[in-house]
Amino acid sequence: MRLSGFILLFTLALQAGAKDGAAIYKEHCASCHGDKGQGVADEYDEALVGKKSIASLTKYIHKSMPEDDEDAVINDDARAVSEYMFHAFYSPEAQAKLKPVRKDLLRRTQHQHRRALSDLVASFRGNSNLGDKHGLFARYFNKEKMNNQKGKLAERTDTWIGFDLKSDHKIKNLNPKAFSINWSGSIMPPETGTYGFRISTPNGARLWLNDIDNSTDPLIDAWVSSNNKMRQVEKSTFLLGGHSISLYLDYVSYKEDVSSIQFEWKPPHGTWQPIPQRYLFPKRSQVLAIPTTPFPADDASMGYERGSSISKAWREAVTNSAIEITNHVFEDIDRLSRSKSSDKDRAQKLRDFCATMAERAFARPLSAEQRKIHVDGIFDQSKDDLDSAVKRSLLLTFTSPYFLYPDLNVNAEGKPDQFTLATKIALSLWDSIPDRTLLDAAHKGHLANENQINQRIDRMLEDPRSKEKLHRFFFTWLNLAEKDDLSKDLETFPGFDENVIADLRTSLTLFIEQVIWSEKSDYRQLFLSGNLPINNRLAEFYGKEAPKSGFANVPAGKHSAGLFTHPYVLSAFSYHKQTSPIHRGVYLSRNVLGRFLKPPPNAIEFKDADFKPDLTMREKVTEITKDNSCMSCHSIINPIGFGLENYDAVGRFRTHEKKKPINSASDYPTEDDKTVRITGARDLAKLAAESPGAHRAFIKHLFHHLVQQPTNSFGFTTMDALHEEFTKNNFNIRHLVKTIAKTNATH
Fold this sequence. Notes:
The chain is an alpha+beta fold. It folds into five domains: 17-98, Cytochrome c-like domain (Cytochrome Bc1 Complex, Chain D, domain 2), CATH 1.10.760.10; 136-281, Jelly Rolls, CATH 2.60.120.1560; 312-461; 477-690, no CATH class; 694-746. It is built from 28 helices and 17 strands. α26 (692-707) packs across α28 (733-746).
């Protein structure tokens, strides 16, 4: 009874405190923030949301709130109103009540649409299993018997396409006055975009891409030699990242004084260079349908791309891409449908082909109504015009809501089933449709338990499409996806040209891939790893030991901190001539450490001319952010930015600026109201590696990228469950990807 009485009294006391807090809020706060924390127009129109704890709220209110009378709410009153605000507005439970988050019905994004169409057609051509061997298959011939097996002199795998008779004449019995070479295989583009291809030769050369039997016009046709004069011929084409395309290059030299050829590409965000060996394969891929129709940009207002908007431009793009792929399919209809014009049952074969196309597009068996609408009804009306029936059926399938809106693909009872699960896994990992292997598993009921699902996801994670999607995620997470201009003042930073910038992007890509696809796949190594992949050009610029060839890992230095100190990242968040602690601090605070930052009350443009020339960047930033209204956020931003000041605007380590020793030390306020001393990049790395807030921020960003839905729409316990699983599995990134894909599929 005594215990019960104590609990009752304690509860009443808490209620009394809560009541006092509510009364204080109503009297001093509601006029600006609203009765439900929703904000008040022309006062403070932003909702009371964020990640402040009760202690940090108390400290903030005690010091500076309300703005017109800072001494009105202090000490116990500040504590009472903070407790009320936290439980009423800030806590996840409060947010769930005030603003419940629901899943949206989403269409395919432009990335998903292109990949789905491409993979849909590819499912009828068979898999392009390229194997593990890298390079291109090369055959060398004497001219008089070019491409004739009897005249073949040698076969080998070349790691890159380039030949110079003066230095490469190692082929036995090669006639230097009359010979030819052809290279064949596949290219695996690492990211989606427009790629340039260039041939430099005084001789004859032709290049085919995405043409398994060379039946179309070559992309580059320079077959007629230029009479010993070197020439460059270049063309560009749109490619899908993670989707291989075939390559065939013919080269001939006949009675010419000079014999040489160099083949290069220019990837998105890159410069002209030989195609790296890791992207070349000696086996030729199947022909790939590549939709090139431009699409309007998808909504990214929530920090990740979503198919949430419908516009006239989008509808036109959907229609035009459907026409584009329909024409592609129709040109090869007999091969794809396994039929011939002379077949007596050709009509049935074409009808069955269109039905199978619709089933794979919708990722489930067709209902009787769906088959009638998309296939049978069309063929029944066009008995004498099979060509028209095929085209109409394909167009209707490619523009069907069941294809454009994957969430519509449910069974007749409207309940999730294994086909729904397969669809969601494919969207999470590939931004595409389930392949035939995954659909077959769904047909057989082999996605019924966690072990079966894990097996399918493990297989899919090894697919280049998964690797491309994770590549895109990291550059989005790091705010680098659209960073095209990293150029600096060449007088201040001589040698930091477009080639160095392109090499740095490659270096960052390799660094991320090494962490993700290592055995441990340890998130913490993104910040704690001391490796820096460089080539000869980067070694010279950054004063490192040059590798023997290509890119190789070198020690980044004792002060390095993985991603934080990678030169590409540091360069991206710097000014043209100098560093930017604010840009660095904002990006790291929000994206990596997961801190909530309000938009600045007044945007202040940084103008270097406004400061004395002998001031360091730290001194300048301290001066313009010293106001109390600024420091509520800059108390978080500045210590992080200052912690990286030992690295200049191109990511080189330094100890002095303006002939003054650099001070990189600051006190950083953590989310749990502790103060951590930051002395440099290594302290920041430790913070990102160990902080639960940073872990949860990474999980949230990855979840959004893979699922394109808010984590809270899956329930407020979802983040806690994902964080627990992430921690339990030693922060394994690939395991986290698997967990998120399963969560999306089975929720």
